[in-house]
Amino acid sequence: MTRGQAGGLELHGIEGLPEIVSGDDLGRLIAERAAPLRSGDIVVVAQKVVSKAEGRLRSLSAVAPSPRAQELAEQLHADPRMVQVVLDESVRVVRADRVLIVETRHGFVCANAGVDRSNVPGADVACLLPEDCDRSAEELRRRIAEVAGVEVGVVISDTFGRPWRVGLCNVALGVAGMPATVDYRGSPDDFGMPLHATLVAVADEIAAAAEMVMGKTRRIPVVVVRGLALEGPAGSGQELVRTADLDLFR
Amino acid sequence: MTRGQAGGLELHGIEGLPEIVSGDDLGRLIAERAAPLRSGDIVVVAQKVVSKAEGRLRSLSAVAPSPRAQELAEQLHADPRMVQVVLDESVRVVRADRVLIVETRHGFVCANAGVDRSNVPGADVACLLPEDCDRSAEELRRRIAEVAGVEVGVVISDTFGRPWRVGLCNVALGVAGMPATVDYRGSPDDFGMPLHATLVAVADEIAAAAEMVMGKTRRIPVVVVRGLALEGPAGSGQELVRTADLDLFR
Q1: Which sign, positive or negative, has the C-alpha torsion A157, B205, B243, A79?
Q2: Is the dihedral of CA B164, B169, B173, B174 positive or negative?
Q3: Separation of alpha carbons B72 and B68, rounded Å
Q4: Which of A12, A204, A208, A241 has a CA between 20 and 30 Å from the CA of residue B162?
């Protein structure tokens, strides 16, 4: 960095990870290929590889769609078995119009409950979100600490749509070893006035930044973010899920 | 970067900008302090300094609140003059419950029409969003090209809340000299299957990433993003505004 520049942040994609399959020791694979990791680094891992390592895959040939799934599938021109898998992962259908927008068991509102068939071996296989994304993040964090001897933050990310704006952005589903938010509430602004209501979802910003390095077709499911000095106790992905009664935008 | 790392991205905050006032040549100030800029760099500029340079400030003492503003202000325990300023910037009130969520003249759905009083000199002054954020971005891009002789992308960012998720994230209000989205639709995934419906709002991801360097209280309103090779024609912030009839999430 030259003079006049501050607050540098670096993102690097990790190449050379093998195709991940159920039972793989993903934490070790990341720790080895991302070397040298430093304490304070944040490791962003695409949900897809976490789900694969955890065996969160369902073969559509073994799915018997319910009448409701069949009805929705007809309405959406979709595969009724795929709709059934989505319903099995959901607690509520938010909208069924061209695509199925649901609330997942985790509380995420997204298309198809995060279930998809891209980057999965076999046309017949659907990949589900991890059962507990914060637990998955914590397991990766602990395993990286064991293997590499460094304390990193971990974010498990996926690509979600959102209301009112075009296009998808990566968000944080699971968080470990770092705060999920930065609270500017009560801090003075540059003129000494208190800042109101500024709670920044930094884990979502990290996920969004990492997506630019991951891309979708470059086989880079892990990105290391370096230079972000986050203070405060470790947070969770669940913290970022807003319950309906507190949602001013609904 | 060492072996096994790819797709590096660097973000640097620009320090040493003076307090920006109406009429300042912001493009020149940025070009000088961010030197050496390179073609292909993306310059993310916080809306607040753009608005200040453009004189988008209103003195509350000159505002006469309408009966509607007074009524809303009572309901929200807010300053009726501030409510009037927000209404003047809005085409629709989405929700008035603790905070005023509106659709702005640009089509953005956000709290208080992006109007705020933090980091503004004088307790009586409200800062408005730029009138046309894409035009502001294009003017900055052109001025930086004139002064520094480099073709950069420009993103004008602000911090917005969003439905369903806790915390705010920076988004792109204005875009110039770079695409606003990356279209993965039709690209094959790693197994050769077509990827469906993946249009990524890369300008929002850039804005989100830059927020981590800007912070809110560190007087770093400009961040340079280096290493992102975006292809395709220049886009706009308006492209990222989803009209209600195309919004699957509403």
Answers
A1: negative
A2: negative
A3: 6
A4: A12
CA A146 to chain B, closest CA, distance in angstroms equals 20
**B8 vs A11, A120, A200: nearest CB:** A11
pLDDT digits (tens, 9 = 90+) for A218-238: 779 999 999 998 989 999 999
pLDDT for position B231: 87
Asked if A244 and A250 count as a contact pair (C-beta separation under 8 A), the reply is yes
CB contact under 8 A, A209 and B204: no
CB contact under 8 A, A10 and B7: no
From the candidates A82, A248, A250, which should be mutated to test the interface with B, based on the most B CB atoms within 10 A? A248
| Spatial CA neighbour of B28 closest among B138, B147, B142, B152 | B147
What is the mean pLDDT of the segment spanning B21-46?
96
B124 contacts B100 by C-beta, under 8 angstroms: no
Burial of A204 per CB tally in 10 Å (0-12, 13-18, 19+): buried
Residues of chain A in contact with residue B220, where contact means CB-CB under 8 angstroms, are: 6-7
A121 → closest Cβ in B163, B191, B204:
B191
Cβ contacts of B164 on chain A, cutoff 8 Å = 108-109, 162-163, 241-242, 247, 249-250
Q: Measured between alpha carbons, how far is B49 from B42 in angstroms, rounded to an integer?
A: 17
- Suggest the residue from A125, A238, A249, A250 to mutate for an interface test with chain B (most B CBs closer than 10 A): A249
The predicted model gives A91-111 an average pLDDT of 92
Q: Nearest CA to A224 among A119, A144, A159?
A: A144
Quote the minimal CA–CA distance from A225 to chain B in Å: 9
Chain B hits for A215, Cβ within 8 Å: 7, 184
CB contact under 8 A, B167 and A13: no
Taking 60 as the threshold, does the pLDDT of residue A144 lie above it? Answer: yes
Q: Is B8 within 8 Å of A9 when comparing Cβ atoms? A: no
- pLDDT of A3: 38
Q: Which of A161, A208, A240 sits opposite B205 (nearest CB)?
A: A208
Summarised one tens digit per residue, pLDDT across range A7-35 is 689 999 998 899 999 999 999 999 999 98
Question: Which residues, other chains included, contact B200 with Cβ-Cβ below 8 Å and sequence gap of 6+?
Answer: A159, A167, A168, A169, A211, A216, B181, B182, B183, B184
Query: In terms of C-beta density within 10 A (0-12 exposed, 13-18 middle, 19 or more buried), how is residue A215 classed?
Result: middle
CA distance B222 to A181: 22
B84: nearest Cα among B48, B110, B58:
B58
For residue A139, give the H/E element and its range.
helix A133-148
Catalogue all structural domains in chain A, each as residue range(s) with its CATH number. 10-54+132-242 (3.30.1330.100), 57-126 (3.90.1660.10)
Q: What's the number of CA atoms in the CB half-sphere (13 Å) around residue B38? A: 8
